[in-house]
Amino acid sequence: MELALLKRLELFTRLSAQDKAAFDAILTRTRIVPARRDVISEGDRPTHVNLVLRGWAARTKMLPDGRRSLVGFLIPGDFCDLNIYILRQMDHSISAITALKVAQLEPEQLTCVMERHPRITQALLWHELVATAVQREWTHNLGARPAYERLAHLLVELFLRMRSVGLTYGDSCDFPLTQYDLAEASGLTPVHVNRTLQALRADGLVELERKRLVIPDLQRLIEVAMFNPNYLHLDHEGAHLDAND
Amino acid sequence: MELALLKRLELFTRLSAQDKAAFDAILTRTRIVPARRDVISEGDRPTHVNLVLRGWAARTKMLPDGRRSLVGFLIPGDFCDLNIYILRQMDHSISAITALKVAQLEPEQLTCVMERHPRITQALLWHELVATAVQREWTHNLGARPAYERLAHLLVELFLRMRSVGLTYGDSCDFPLTQYDLAEASGLTPVHVNRTLQALRADGLVELERKRLVIPDLQRLIEVAMFNPNYLHLDHEGAHLDAND
DNA sequence: CGTCTATTTGAGCCCCGTCAAAGGCGGTGG
DNA sequence: CCACCGCCTTTGACGGGGCTCAAATAGACG
Fold first, then answer.
1. Fewer Cβ atoms within 10 A, N terminus or C terminus of chain A?
2. How many angstroms away from the CA of B226 is the closest CA of chain A?
3. Is residue A128 part of a domain?
């Protein structure tokens, strides 16, 4: 199983070897989505559950006048559409940022694994609840922080999420977003994102070039961004359910 | 059982008489929270599930520099903290807008009802998924719409949500938010909210005074707001699970 | 080395924020 | 019933953060 996915599932609670094997067994079908193409589109009724194994994607919403928002990012280990059990159709699109490798799970098989492996069910529930908490923080970020702090916050969040699935290397990580992507995700214009990033660089808070992010002093960036990590719920809150094998 | 709550539960699927009775039976303890006081605060570890029976509340997040956001509104029938099964502590506060009547459910009792009444489980899952979808739309609203359309969108959403639980009267409904509340919810300043509301009134799109909202021509406001109702998932998507008694 | 995309820079302006003060309205107590 | 008080709404003047339009530069890729 991909390491990122495994780390992701175990952020909430440690799984047993059987839990992992059962989950791994349903990861049979995968699909490659080219960069900048939709994984699923608004209005679609997905027939299977998509799970990002490699690459980045974004949840996007579009206005009739053409304005587009990126309302969330998906990194390896993130589920695209666990909701298909309940909601009939997608109310937003999921679009690949980079070339993307996604697993396509059969709902029946996933249901079956969840019934026999309650720790996996809990891990998926945790996944969804954290996704909602992240969404609330994004709302707050757009509503309350000015451009400089807003971008700083977004960078810290993405760095910490990458780190939580083992995809950082010291103080750096891959960062495939263009400034245009950042603009659509932060509610700013590309021009202003550019100038704001320059200010962050000038202040020695981030280095960002060639699809690579470096954060020389994470603690300082966290303070500047007024970043409170509590909403990521990364502190292993399901420890009491840990498998002990 | 309160009518709003009943309508809320049945937005997804029709419940049987037994479903309703079982749920009603655990609605024993209620609490009155005065206006402008917290129902739960960030960092709390709630011991029971809170459910709004009467009045309005808001989910709030605070920055260290004092700026506050309202990142969501709760109206009758909304659950405050279904997530306590998984997440240990609140990453935001819930604050009463009006005097509030909330039911306090025992988690064990709720679990018990969910195990025996799958339609209720589904209705609660639906509730959470729609809450997440609403949160995404708020992010989009703040990121993509200018003040005029943004406020229009917020008003349409609240009106439709009130209507879905039977709390509108023709083209009007209670609307206890102050312009200061609207400012914190829309990422604007109270002064600008005031001027923008005046513009909406001047254009005949809304009447808003004395805690009462009137929308003379909903269709027109929907168009102005570029409002797409799909994210509210109000079209009875669980019809195939309906109880038929 | 040419083409395409992404980043950067500049100038001007507008939407919305800030600061300050005046009205309005409901509630409360005398 | 009226007077007062506190909260909410409204108005004005002014300033600034971020947007728009436009064009130049730098990288990425074949």
1. C
2. 7
3. no
